[in-house]
Each structure stands twice: as structure tokens, then as C-alpha cells.
């Protein structure tokens, strides 16, 4: 744990940044937490960085921070569990509440909510590992291909950082993709792959309501997997995305609509793919976007012409006022 500063003034905010955890995305969380803490400190915020361990609750009870910022990726960090604890302790925190976090964390449920709000999303099916085995892998995979076709995207229905994600171009590769997905969870989401431009739209709440930052376009030399996300050189990013003006507006509107429909709060990121007709398709959302040096949220902030430190401070101040 990083010790609190001894030079706190009455005008300073005290923030505890939660980073680490035990998910597969621990390293990303640690890097995100470090960068956010440094940015906040540059604005005079008194920051403590803490892992999720047996000392966390006593530490929070002792410090009584003005705001807690959960920068935990993966399970517990994004499924609402830690946020439930923060609410039990009656501590303000950055981000979406527990119920909406659970909805957003489950990709198939989130897709249903967003589709009901009028946003396109690729046709898909979810498949539990036990059922997959009981019904017979071959017949189930044949039914999936017959209904949805190829190419397909296979990914854990709960998870982040593209862990366990595969692109299936041939029916014979579906079994291997499902096995890769089941390594990260017992339910796989099999989704029709949309050919188009992949974009990420970060959202920040302002006095005017949820506001879309410039979309970031992602170009990779293969699937946008964990390695492509966090190791420089595998991916190219264009911020703002290279979209026509009307498509840019359509993408921003779709992202804000998804943010509102899912009940997200303070900040978030909505991932979309834009097809050749300029229609944005919802893929998934993230209630705790990565904040590393290669992450999409910081790129969007910089593309908007503002500073990371200023935006992070504004987010913290808004969270401090949230009842």
C-alpha cells in the first residue's frame, strides 16, 4: 500500500485507488491504478493505492476517504462485488453501481438491454460448458454454424481484456475456440463476426449528462486480443476514428444510448463495430476501462483536447458529490 501524504490541506480530496485483485487482469489493473494515481496527485489530490486483500476494509474504515476509485478489471472489479462492499461502508466511489455493473459484466444480458434500446448488436448464442458436453459437441457446433454462419467471434460471456477471445473463420476451428473461451469461464458467447471498423467510445458524465469522447479506431494485425491490447506494436490506433461525419455522430449516439440503457455512471467505455453501411453494432461495454499507456480511454481523453489529470479530477469530484 502506498502511504497517504502528510501534506493534506482542507481543499484536497483524499482518494483510495483500488488496483490489483486476483483476476487474470491483475497486471493491467496495477498499471491502470498507478497511472491514475500519478495523474490525480499532479492536481493536488491525496491518493492511496491499495490492493484488494484482507487489509482493505479496515484501511477504508480508518481512512474514510472522500472517494474510492475501483480500477479493478475482471471478476469482482467489474461484476459489482467490490462496489457492494463500498456501499456497505457508505463510501462514495467512482463508477457504476452494483446492479448495473452485473448487467454490463454479462455480455449476453448487456446485448439484450442495448438491443431493446434500439441499437444493433450481432446475432449470438450463449453456451454453457456442461451443456455443451452433455448435448454432444458436434451436433451443437453444427447447429451454431447453421444458424449464425461464419465468421464467428467466440469469447467468455463474462470477462475483459479479450482473454479467451477467438475469431473462427472455418467451422472446424469452432471447437478449439470454445475450449479457449472455457478456460476463462463456464459460459461462452458465440457471436456473428461483423466485418467493419472497430471503434471504442469512452463516455464521461458531465453537467450536461453522458458525453461521448472522440471514438478511437483500432487496427490490428490479427485479432484484437490481450497481446494486441497491451503490448505496443501489435495495434494501431486512430483518435479520432477515421469515420465520416454522419457516421461519427451515429457512433457517439449509439454509445451514449447504450451507456444510459445499461445504467452506467460517471464513466465507461462502449465497444462497437461499424459495418460497411455505416451502422454501429454494439459489442460490449466496460464499467472500469483500462487506464494504461496503451488503453483506449486515455487516448480518447487526449484526442478531446483535455488532460488526463483534469478529467480524472473532474470524475473524482463528481463521484464525491454522488449520494
How would you concisely characterize the structure shown here?
38% of the residues lie in helices and 23% in strands. With 323 residues, the protein is of the alpha+beta class.
Number of DSSP strands? 13
Return the CATH topology of the domain at 103-120 and 196-305.
D-amino Acid Aminotransferase, Chain A, domain 1
CATH superfamily of the domain at 103-120 and 196-305: ATP-grasp fold, B domain
- Share of residues in strands: 15-25%
> What's the end-to-end separation, in Å?
27 Å
Task: Determine and state the CATH class of the domain at 103-120 and 196-305.
Answer: Alpha Beta
At CATH's second level, what is the architecture of the domain at 103-120 and 196-305?
2-Layer Sandwich
Provide structural commentary.
- With 323 residues, the chain is of the alpha+beta class.
- Among the domains are: 103-120 and 196-305, D-amino Acid Aminotransferase, Chain A, domain 1; 124-192, ATP-grasp fold, A domain (Dna Ligase, domain 1, 2-Layer Sandwich).
- Helices cover 38% and strands 23% of the residues.
- The chain has helices at residues 26-41, 56-63, 81-88, 98-105, 107-116, 129-135, 137-148, 174-182, 226-230, 245-261, 296-303, 308-321; strands spanning 14-18, 46-50, 67-70, 124-128, 152-156, 166-168, 187-192, 196-206, 209-212, 216-220, 235-238, 267-275, 280-286.
- The strands form 3 sheets. Strands 8, 9, 10, 11, 12 and 13 form a 6-stranded antiparallel β-sheet that branches.
- A hairpin with a 4-residue loop joins β12 and β13 (280-286).
- The longest helix has 17 residues, at 245-261.
- The radius of gyration is 20 Å and the shape is globular.
- The model is unreliable at 1-10 (pLDDT under 50).
Amino acid at each position: 500500500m502506498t502511504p497517504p501524504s502528510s501534506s493534506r490541506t482542507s481543499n484536497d480530496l483524499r482518494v483510495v485507488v483500488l488496483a490489483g485483485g486476483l483476476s487474470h487482469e491483475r497486471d493491467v489493473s496495477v498499471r491502470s491504478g498507478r497511472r491514475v494515481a500519478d495523474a490525480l496527485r499532479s492536481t493536488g489530490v491525496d491518493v492511496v493505492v491499495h490492493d484488494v486483500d484482507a487489509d482493505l476494509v479496515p484501511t477504508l474504515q480508518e481512512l474514510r476517504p472522500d472517494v474510492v476509485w475501483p480500477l479493478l478489471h475482471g471478476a469482482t472489479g467489474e461484476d459489482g462485488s467490490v462496489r457492494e462492499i463500498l456501499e456497505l461502508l457508505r463510501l462514495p466511489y467512482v463508477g457504476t453501481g452494483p446492479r448495473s455493473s452485473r448487467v454490463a459484466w454479462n455480455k449476453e444480458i448487456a446485448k439484450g438491454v442495448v438491443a431493446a434500446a434500439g441499437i444493433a448488436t450481432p446475432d449470438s448464442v450463449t453456451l454453457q460448458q456442461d451443456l455443451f458436453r452433455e448435448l454432444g459437441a458436434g451436433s451443437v457446433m453444427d447447429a451454431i454454424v447453421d444458424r449464425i454462419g461464419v465468421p464467428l467471434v467466440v469469447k467468455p460471456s463474462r470477462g475483459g481484456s479479450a482473454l479467451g477471445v477467438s475469431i473462427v473463420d472455418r467451422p472446424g476451428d469452432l471447437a478449439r475456440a470454445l475450449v479457449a473461451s472455457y478456460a476463462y469461464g463456464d459460459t461462452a458467447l458465440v457471436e456473428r463476426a461483423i466485418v467493419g471498423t472497430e471503434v471504442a467510445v469512452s463516455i464521461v458524465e458531465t453537467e450536461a449528462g453522458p458525453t461521448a469522447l472522440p471514438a478511437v479506431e483500432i487496427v490490428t494485425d490479427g485479432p484484437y486480443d490481450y497481446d494486441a491490447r497491451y503490448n505496443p506494436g501489435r495495434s494501431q490506433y486512430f483518435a479520432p476514428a477515421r469515420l465520416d461525419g454522419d457516421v461519427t455522430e451515429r457512433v457517439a449516439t449509439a454509445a451514449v444510448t447504450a451507456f444510459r440503457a445499461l445504467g452506467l455512471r460517471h464513466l465507461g467505455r462502449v465497444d462497437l463495430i461499424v459495418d460497411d453501411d455505416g451502422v454501429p453494432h454494439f459489442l460490449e461495454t466496460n464499467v472500469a476501462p483500462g487506464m494504461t499507456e496503451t488503453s483506449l480511454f486515455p487516448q480518447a481523453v487526449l484526442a478531446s483536447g483535455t488532460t488526463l489529470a483534469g478529467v480524472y479530477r473532474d470524475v473524482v469530484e463528481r463521484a464525491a458529490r454522488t449520494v
